[in-house]
Amino acid sequence: MTNDELITKLKTIIEPYIQDEVAFKTLSEDTDFINDLKVNSANLVDIILDIEDEFNIRLENEDMEKMLDVKAAMLIINTKLKA
Amino acid sequence: MVGNDIVDLEEAKFTSHWQRPRYLEKIFTETEQQLIKNCTNPFHVVWRLWSMKEAAYKLYVQVNPSQFYSPKSFECKFEFENGNVKYKNFECQIKTSITSKYILSEARLLDDRMTSEVIEFKDKTYKNQSAVLRNALLITLSELYQLSKEDLKFQKSEFNIPTVLCNSVNIHVSLTHHGHFGAYAI
């Protein structure tokens, strides 16, 4: 999967939870889920479970700890997919 | 220093699905999961524990500036309106208020009364809610310190930790919103 394909999939997962449309439209690898997209922290776990389902992977505590931005999410997904 | 967190119960019902597989094990310890399983109102206990963890996290990052997502590592205990959260060697005391519409928790290093002021929003837009909440906070602070609102400056650190700059002194504050409710504490 290319990075663009991965970002497209991530955007579909994140969209229901975002509260800042402008930041979502200009989403890049540096976009932060809580600070930029204003995702409520209570919904971050919904995003994590959606990622697990979409990519058929399991995220551990130490993966979740770093899941704060698009870049970190991509790195974690790619690492799990290669494992 | 203070950390607070509010959960709009209507909003939680519709946007978070705590009954979906793996949800509880992702954010709650074994002990907390047992508590949820064996209680009469799991919906309330789930959101009570969640608001305690969030309030404690917001206090923790004021003491130790950082940003991370590790709700499971914040271990909660509660009895009546009092609670206690432990994370590594950090420990704080929690007060929780539960109404038919929301659950609100407030974390302090030492046991204290709840001071959060709750606001019910007419508007669900994040930006408008944020502006209303900050404005209410600044009005309260200006009355408290007998200063004009223009002398107070709301700011957020690189880790998204809010403070209000007041005559070159940084005052720790905590703000929270969810659904139709928000709250601030000083």
Automatic annotation (TrEMBL), chain A:
Domain spans labelled Carrier: 1-81
PROSITE patterns to which the protein is assigned, alphabetical: CARRIER
Pfam families (UniProt xref): PP-binding
Record-linked InterPro entries: ACP-like_sf, PP-bd_ACP
Gene3D superfamilies, per database record: ACP-like
SUPFAM superfamilies: ACP-like
Protein name, entry field: Acyl carrier protein
Automatic annotation (TrEMBL), chain B:
Single GO MF descriptor: holo-[acyl-carrier-protein] synthase activity
Record keyword Transferase present: yes
InterPro entries: 4-PPantetheinyl_Trfase_dom, 4-PPantetheinyl_Trfase_dom_sf
Highest taxon of source: Bacteria
Annotated Pfam families: ACPS
Keywords: Transferase
Listed Gene3D superfamilies: 4'-phosphopantetheinyl transferase domain
Residue ranges annotated for the 4'-phosphopantetheinyl transferase domain, each copy included: 2-84
Name this polypeptide is given: 4'-phosphopantetheinyl transferase superfamily protein
